[in-house]
Structure formats: structure tokens, C-alpha cells
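Forwarding the complex inputs:
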Amino acid sequence: MNAPIAFLGLGRMGLPMALRLLAAGFPLRAWNRSEAARTALAAAAPADARLQLCATADAAVAGTGLVITMLSDGPALRALLFGSAPGPGVLALAAPQATLCDMSSIPPTMAREHAEWLSAAGFGALDAPVSGGVVGARDGTLAIMAGGAPQLLARHAAPLAVLGRVTHVGPAGAGQLAKLANQVIVGITIGAVAEALLLAARGGADPAAVRAAIRGGFAESRILELHGARMLIDDFVPGGAVQTQLKDLATALDEARAAGLDLPITGLLRSLFAAARDHGDAALDHAALLRELARHNGLAPDGVLHAAG
Amino acid sequence: MNAPIAFLGLGRMGLPMALRLLAAGFPLRAWNRSEAARTALAAAAPADARLQLCATADAAVAGTGLVITMLSDGPALRALLFGSAPGPGVLALAAPQATLCDMSSIPPTMAREHAEWLSAAGFGALDAPVSGGVVGARDGTLAIMAGGAPQLLARHAAPLAVLGRVTHVGPAGAGQLAKLANQVIVGITIGAVAEALLLAARGGADPAAVRAAIRGGFAESRILELHGARMLIDDFVPGGAVQTQLKDLATALDEARAAGLDLPITGLLRSLFAAARDHGDAALDHAALLRELARHNGLAPDGVLHAAG
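Prediction (whole assembly, two chains):
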């Protein structure tokens, strides 16, 4: 029988990930700040003897050899695991040489600090953020970008393989950096598709037909497929929200600056997503950048791809 | 037996397209400015009675019902077909009600003018530029973006289907507009991938592993697949050249301006590709935008994804 895993954070992503681990036979000690999510997990895995719901993170971590975290952001993770001071934090309650595998998306700088603190206390650390959304979490098809020692990653390969496709991308913090690289591409590509469809529509072509025509060529992308379709029908229910995209681009630019880099395109997209937020679209799907480009041109943002001519 | 088609322009794209039409049983009257390309076509289709090589465009067009053009740009097309004055130009030699199907990439404004001139003289016009490169031309898998009257497109569906997947995207000029939308996405997505890989490499991750990790997720694109791979190994043999990408983005911005649109991301990419040209990379593949971003950051452009640390 597998050793129990502590699983902290049962939100939109964490809940389906926890369910996959349970279904694959891994005993879980699961915790979430709100009781509602704990109840949701219990309801989704009724009478599963491998599931132990815990009222505190301390209780979930106690004695385990692997602590998986899936929290909303860096400050939430740090507050929960480490409180206000450097050190092993909650991991001090885990088994000797236990590993933190943080699958949240947090700044690489924070991930590197956590790895240092844990290493100094004899614990291991992996930063392993994911891409693929709720569908990927449910189906076990997440892209998992892992930073940290390769031996550590190998030791915990089995549970991670249940969650998705794992790629080792470098030392501590590199997983978070890969996630930022991913978000840079996503944010800019949304801008590319939005400008292209706006040009097509306002120039007198049928934007839906243009999208169909260019699918499968050099312009093909998941963003053209998914977010392009959203733009055509004004479907901006998230998905990934404008405010999350904005946060990720800001973190990417922070990290770039620390590495001595200016990234002009990422910088421009950060400004455009910030304008979208300022104009009230923070909670919409990031495909709503199209609406900001409409406003930028003095056009009404609703149905801009249909109002041309 | 099919009626002969005039095929003007036997360059990198035109030659394999002409060969596909011949192989599919369409008799061709083929012409190219340089005799070398005519000889190359004759060598590739030896003893094919359906092929008639012509020494002039006039001779190729005479009496045909469909004239397909695949030339380098708008000015070349206009000079060949129309000379200096509005009117039917060379099409006056074709059969009554003949159709020009221009598959070159030219400005939408020019395509609309050609359609007007030809229509006034009783001829038809389709603008049907393509995406998919030499490989798509050879395999008959081009994305063909067609503007013009749907009935006209239907009439000439058979030869076009031999060349690729045809999508009607709107009235005259809409095909060229779709091609520009395609190029806007391609140019910006190259920028997205270049900034992301630069961030990964300079931030201390393995850029090749990062690319592998994010493949198949929301960041997936043909550009990440093909141009991302080029960037990792400094392979900037074109492919699509920086100068062509720059020309297309400039035309897209002209067309946007005419439609009352400002496209800030496309504008930034135009500036970046112009800087790449100014720094001597005009003839390199457009993936060489990575080199310009390196220079922008005071880094040596050669092997910038390997020189980190």
C-alpha cells in the first residue's frame, strides 16, 4: 500500500487532482481552508477509506513523506506553509526528508527561497506548476513543469504521472519559470488572434471564415482554436481570467528584470491587460483582450467582430 | 478533357503548384519571367503533353478561361497583368468571361482594384493567397483563403482543390485580408515564443525542456513547434524571411489604418522586425526575431538560448 500523501488546496484545480490520486490508489490526507471544498471532496469520493479529511494543514502534513500543494498564489502558499519566518514551516511536522511538491503558480523567486529553507532543514522541494486547466486536471493530462533535483522528481514520479505529463526543466524555480514562459506565450498569442480577427472583421472579411481558413497553417494554435472561437461569439466566461493573466505577465516581467531582460512584447501585453482590468473586465476570460482592443479603437466592445461594415 | 489553364509564376511556390495541377490532369500553359524556372518545370514534367511552356505571359493567357498567378508581390503582379493603366490588361487576350485567380500575396487594396477593373470589362476575379509554404504547395495541403464572388469560386473549385483546402472568406480583397490576418498571427506568435524562450534561458531553466514541457497545452502553436525548434538550434535558414514578414506586417498596418484601426501589438512587431532587418538579418528566417530581442538586451545574438547562466 502506498504511503499517504498530504494534499493541501481543494479548489477548482486541486479537487479534481485529489480525486485522480485517490482513484489511482494513493491514500490522501486532504485539507482546504474552506469546509465547503472538503465537503465537496468527501461527496465526490464517498466511503473511500483512503481519504482522510483534515481540519488543519498541520494535521494533514503530520508524518507524511510527500506534501502536494495547489493554492491560489505565492502569498497564500507562503502564509500557509511558512508563516512569516524562513524555515521548514509546516514541513517540520512531516516525516524526515519529506518533500514539498508545490503545484501552485507562484513567483520563481519565492519557489527558490522555499527550496533553500527546506533544504537547510533536510527536506526536499519541487516546484511543479501545471498548465491545462480544469479539464486537464480531471483527465490527468496536465502539463507539469518541474524544477528541483532530478532524483527527487524521480522518487515522486508515480503520483505525478497520475496527474499529467511531467517534464524536468531545471533546478529549483525552473518549473515556475516555465509556467511564466507558458503564460507569456498564452497572453501574447491572445493578442495576436484578437488583432488579426479585428483586422479581418473591420477590413470587410468574415472573421469566422478567416479563422476557419487559417486553421492548421502556420497561424494555428490552441489559442486560435479555443480563444478565437470565444472571441467570435463574445463568450468571455472564464477559463483563465484577465486578472490572472495580468498577474502572470507582471511576475514574468519581474523575473525578466531580475535576469537583466527587457521583454517589450510582454510589456505591451501587460499594459493592454491592465487597461482591460481598469475598464471592468478583470473577471472575464483573458480572450476579452479583444474588448480592450475594440475600446482602444473607439469601438463598442460588445460584438465587435459582428459590428463591422 | 479539361480546358487549359494559364499559370503565371513558377517560383518556389508556383513550380510545385503547377506540377500538382499537371499531375491531376489539368492542361497548363505555363510562363515564368526567367527561363530557368520554365526549364525546371519542363524537367520535372518530361514528355507531359498537357504542358505547354510559353515564352510570354500573353501567349500563356491567350484564349484560356482561367488564369492563375503566383508572383512575388503586388507590384510584380500589377506590372505583368495590367501594365500602367487600369483596365483588363492581359486578360483581354483570354476567353470571354475568363477568371483571374491570383494566388500571390498582394495588398487587399490592389486586389480590390484588379477585381473592379476586370469586372468592368466582363471578367471575373478571385484573390486566393495561400499559407503552408513549399511543403504545402508540393503536398496540395495549402490553406487557400479566397475572396470574390462565391459562384466564381464554385466554378473553379476543381483545380483549386488540387492545391489545398479552399475557404471563401468574403468579397474581393477578403482573401488577401485573411492572409494578412494570418501573417499578423505568425509574426506576433514568433515574438511570443522568442520572449518566452529567452526568459526561460536567462532565468536559469533549460529552454529546450521548457518548450517540451509546454507543448500540447494552451501555449501550443505551429510556431512553438517549428520556429521554437529553430530558435533552440540557431537554424535561421528561411523558410519565411524577415523581410517578407516585415512587408506583410507593414501591409497589414496600412490596411488597418484604412479601416480606422490602430493595432498596437502588430505595430510593435513591425518595429522589431524592422530593427532585425536594419541589423543585417533581412534574409534570415523570421524566427531570427529572437536575435533582435537578444540585441535589444545587449546580448550576443548567436546561440543566445545556450549562453545563459
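Chain B touches chain A through 77 residues (CB under 8 Å).
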